[in-house]
Amino acid sequence: MSIRWFHYAAPQPFYGLAGKLWPWFAALALVLALIGLTIGLVLAPADAVQGEGYRIIYVHVPTSWMSMIIYLAMAFWSVLGLVFNTRLSGMMTRALAPTGALCAFLSLWTGALWGKPMWGTWWVWDARLTSELILLFLYLGYMALTSAIDDPRRSDRAGALVAILGAVNVPIIYFSVKWWNTLHQGASVSVTQSPSMAQTMLWGMLIMALAYWMMAIALVLYRVRSLILWRERHADWVRQLPEVRGMA
Amino acid sequence: MGHHGFYVWGSYGVAAFVVVVEVVQARMARRQALREVCQAQQVDMDERGASS
Lengths: 248, 52
Fold this sequence. Notes:
Order of helices and strands of chain B: H
Largest interface: A-B, 37 and 32 residues
Oligomer: heterodimer
Strand content of chain B: under 5%
Structural class of chain B: mainly alpha
Shape of chain A: globular
């Protein structure tokens, strides 16, 4: 296969590619969310122990996963940016941050709403919850820092450092339930063990997770196009774009 | 949803709200970027006109 990876690492071709791709990911996200919600809210039975309250799992687990995956993706783009000095990397990192922050927020929010009826408390300062809260702060710190520095190059570099250093926190979140004695339960799904939940519930959760994946990709592709436009605002190719000519 | 309705719908409601916020924010950011592109291009044209 001769996909020209480095060709698409340049802002101009990627702008076009992202524009073609995002509607497909958005459509996939919508279809998967409808299937996932039908399974989670209609088809899946109530939990033997937790009753209907467990249904929070279909939002809580996917958003928690995404909050970690998106941060790792930011660290990945940051390494690429620092090593190869590609212009797109900083923009991709920046486009990922808002969705990651909101996923971390949703993870904490739905966790609190799940904790109250099941544990009797909205919040405890245990390892899993605290490290996820730190992840939210890392996202907010990244966004505050990058928006405070005007020069795009310097802003990208400073952001890349935060993204890479902060990535240490992600394995801490993931393994926190193993390393420390926490109130939070262990992993519901793992590669080595058969899942500790019913088939229907598992499918609902996985499909919802996939829906969140697709939504995140669609949003990031859409957002990075705005960033490319702004940074390339003096470029000739931007002037030639139909959406720019239409505005003039 | 039994007696857990508040917690379950509180989760789904806020999650849905966040999706709406993200979509609206992304669209506004694009419109803003397009506006600023037009301004920048206008400035470039004026400068070119002034220097020639």
